[in-house]
Amino acid sequence: MTEPAFRRARRPEHKQQxxxxxxxxxxxxxxxxxxxxxxxxxxxxxxxxxxxNVVRYFGTREEIYLELAAEGWxxxxxxxxxxxxxxxxxxxxxxxxTQTLAARPLFCDLLSHTAxxxxxxxxxxxxxxxxxxxxxxxxxxxxxxxxxxxxxxGDEGGELLVAAIGMAGMLYPxxxxxSALAELYAQDPDLAAACLPFEPTMxxxxxxxxxxxxxxxxxxx
Length: 221
What we know:
This protein is an all-alpha fold. The chain contains 10 helices and no strands.
C-alpha cells in the first residue's frame, strides 16, 4: 500500500472511504474464517492500518461487526420485501423468510453472535443506531408478513419475524459445525443427527410457530 493510504483521513468523504475499507476488510475476514475468529488486529492488518487508527472510526471490534449486522438487517429486509410481493400462500411467506436467511451465511453468523458478543463492549450511540435499525426492520417487515400471510393478524407478523431471526442465530452454528465436530460426526454417524440442516429445520419450525400463533391468539396476555 502506498504511503498516502496511511495518512489520517480529514475530509468527510475520505473518512467515509476509510470506514468502508475497514468494513470491507472485516466482512472478508469473517466470510473466510467466521466472525468469532476475527480480531481487531486482524482487521487493522488487512486494511493496512494500525489498531489505533482503526479505533478512530470504530471504537471496538464489536462496533465494526455491529455495523455489518445492521447492514445485513437492511439488505435482508430488501430481499424479503421482494419475495413477499410475490407470496400468495402462507407457505410462500415461510419460504421467503427461510430461503433469504439461508442465502446469507454472514448475516446468520452475525445473528448468532449479536446478543452474546456484539452488543457488549460498545458505545451507547452504536447500540442506539443498531437497535433503531433492527426495530425499524421488524416493524416494516412484520406489517408486510401480516398482509402476505392471511392466517396472521395484528402483531403476529412481527412475532414470526422475530422467531425467524432467533432460530437463524441459534441454528446457524449448529448447521455449520467446527472442524472438530465435523470430524466427530464423520467418525460417529449416530452423533451426526445433532448437526441439523439449516433450511429444512428453519422451515419446519417457522411453520409450527405460525400455526401456534393462530392457535393461541385468544390466550395473548
